[in-house]
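Researcher: Go.
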Amino acid sequence: MKRKPYVAGNWKMWGTRRQARDYFPRLLERLAPVAERTVDVGICAPFTALDVCVEAARGSGVRVLAQNMHQAAEGAHTGEISAAMLTELGVDGVVLGHSERRRDHCENDRALREKLPVALAAGLEPILCVGETEEEREQGETERRLRQQVWEALEDVPDDRLGDIVIAYEPVWAIGTGRTATPDQAQEAIAFIRALVADRSREAAAKIRILYGGSVKPDNAADILAQPDVDGALVGGASLDPVGFATIVAAAEER
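Model: Structure:
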């Protein structure tokens, strides 16, 4: 099955409303017209700039995603955001389980198991982030950790909805460190993740898009994106520059 590449930029804690307004015209002028574009493009923006991004992206085909979401519909969850709050803004998707959320906010696999079905039911496309730490890789625990994260998070997702999820493999040791997995390392891990999905549904495994994330930059994107199981990239710091981000999108178009 031919899978359309997907490049999403994760702004993390960057992007005031003014910065978001300035950013989008600079990005859009460097992207192919939506009717000619062969790559899906997304921007994962902070909550305060989501509505600005939705308006700025209107008609461009660029997806707008939130960086987190609570699994409850409402209630005593101070500081959290529900799926309905996101859909009311016209948001297209949501990043779930980023390693920084796991590390800094104690998000665990069980919470993600609850969040994924909620996001899907709301019509949001979830990007599920998984990946091992440096210690886990050095100890030969990469596959064990990925198996735990993927199987736990997807447990309550019906087989016929698995292909509607995007998975981002982000080795924790490569996020924000300047270190990047080699193309072979990225391919090996992502092929393993695809095999885990195939244990549930071969059809979903052929359809699901699995991205690589971890210090993706314009000068290394092409080699990583050329791997057969790598369907795109979740880009961190390099996405803050619309010129550099558009260069990564162009690399995905040429894969």
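Model: The domain at 6-253 is CATH 3.20.20.70 (TIM Barrel).
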